[in-house]
Automatic annotation (TrEMBL):
It comes from the Bacteria. Residues 72-153 form the Core-binding (CB) domain. It comes from Sulfobacillus acidophilus (strain ATCC 700253 / DSM 10332 / NAL). Residues 174-372 form the Tyr recombinase domain. The lineage of its organism: Bacteria, Bacillati, Bacillota, Clostridia, Eubacteriales. One of its GO terms (biological process) is DNA integration. This is Integrase family protein. One of its GO terms (molecular function) is DNA binding.
Length: 390
């Protein structure tokens, strides 16, 4: 066990019989390891807490290695934090996202010493991002920076986290777009004329994520049981494409397929065989279901581009996203009375509670039915539960 003394920390103020408040800061002598305590009394609890926090910071600065504080830059902290993340089971796409978003921090003050970074510097970064990027990007950068600096505090690299004193950018709540059954029918009809029609049908009818569909292998489909197993996600574009495990543990799942989708996939398999013959030596043999004319898997960005083309051809709103097909299917499942547990399992969510939180808008009619049912029971009227057989 390490003999290194524990770091200083401010204890909760103690109320004295006199009514005053005693502030306390505990620390350990670096040489002897002996526990010590600083105290001071104040008229109010708030004053006591403020003094204790300030003294804790001062003690941490002397407790930490002076050499560390004099040489540690923000880039050093970010590099070490990312290295620590790589030791955990984090998806490659997630790490790529971390690296990409943290470039904003590195450009702003990456070469500066961490001890010199102030809440004001961080606030300026957030303000700058608000003018050049989306609110969600700003919030994500703030979350990553706060997490990295929290880790540095935990690892005794810095005494406090200046990002904790700055509010993260707020993201306006985005209203979920839900396609009506008529919209979905028309969209799929238009998509039939497009090379990626089978992909659109698969996402729309199965409610899977785009990356899960792009990462699908032919061996994942069981024609006899009419099921498909989601085992992986394909992310990125060009040379930066990579396969990873699905988003959560629950995202690895086996789903039943409707007969119409099985027909669509069999037709697509025939088309893929024709593409192989036409491409001849240019054909690249891969296990993927949804491929280009050369047999290679699709880039996520290219798929999005083609989806926008379908929207324009069908005179649909161009702000619709591929992910909205998933939302549409989930909403209609719930609105049709499908068990939330079944819907949650098909979507690959971590829990039923999360599904209900995201799709609460799909259940208003059930709320009304439940209210009427309870009122009728309390008033003694003859009625039946709308969900019980008559």
């Amino acid at each position: 066990m390490s003999s290194r003394p524990k770091e200083p920390h401010a204890a909760a103020p103690r109320k004295l019989p006199s009514g005053r408040w005693q502030a306390r800061v505990t620390y350990w002598d670096r040489e002897t390891g002996q526990r010590k305590e600083l105290t001071r009394t104040f008229a109010t609890e708030r004053e006591a807490k403020k003094w204790a926090r300030e003294e804790e910071v001062k003690l941490r600065e002397t407790w930490l290695s002076p050499q560390t504080l004099l040489t540690l830059t923000v880039n050093n902290v970010l590099d070490q934090w990312l290295d620590a993340k790589r030791l955990k089971p984090v998806a490659r796409s997630t790490l790529e996202s971390y690296i990409g978003h943290l470039r904003h921090v590195r450009q702003a003050f990456g070469n500066q010493l961490v001890k010199d970074i102030s809440p004001s510097d961080i606030q300026k970064l957030y303000a700058s991002l608000s003018h050049t990027h989306s609110p969600r990007t700003g919030q994500y950068v703030a979350t990553l920076l706060r997490s990295a600096l929290d880790w540095a505090v935990t690892m005794d690299l810095i005494p406090t986290n200046p990002a904790r004193k700055v509010s993260k950018p707020q993201v306006p709540r985005r209203e979920m777009i839900v396609l009506t059954p008529e919209d979905a029918t028309k969209l799929l009809r238009v998509a039939q004329q497009h090379r990626l029609y089978a992909l659109w049908w698969f996402i729309a009818l199965m409610g899977v994520r785009k990356g899960e569909a792009l990462g699908l292998y032919w061996e994942d489909i069981d024609w006899n049981t009419k099921t498909v197993t989601i085992r992986r996600t394909l992310s990125g574009s060009g040379r930066r494409r990579y396969l990873s495990a699905p988003k959560t543990h629950h995202s690895t799942r086996t789903l039943a397929m409707p007969d119409i989708l099985i027909q669509v996939l069999k037709q697509w398999k025939e088309q893929q065989q024709k593409d192989r013959i036409i491409a001849q030596t240019n054909w690249v043999e891969t296990p993927y279901v949804f491929t280009t004319k050369r047999g290679t898997p699709w880039d996520a960005s290219a798929v999005t581009h083609h989806f926008k083309r379908v929207l324009r051809q069908g005179d649909f709103p161009t702000h619709w996203r591929i992910h909205d097909l998933r939302h549409a299917m989930a909403t209609h499942w719930l609105a049709s009375g499908i068990s939330p547990k079944v819907v949650s399992e098909r979507l690959g969510h971590a829990s039923v509670a999360f599904t209900l939180q995201v799709y609460a808008h799909a259940l208003p009619h059930q709320q009304a039915e439940a209210a009427e049912y309870m009122a009728a029971r309390l008033l003694g009227r003859s009625t039946h539960d709308p969900h019980e057989p008559t």
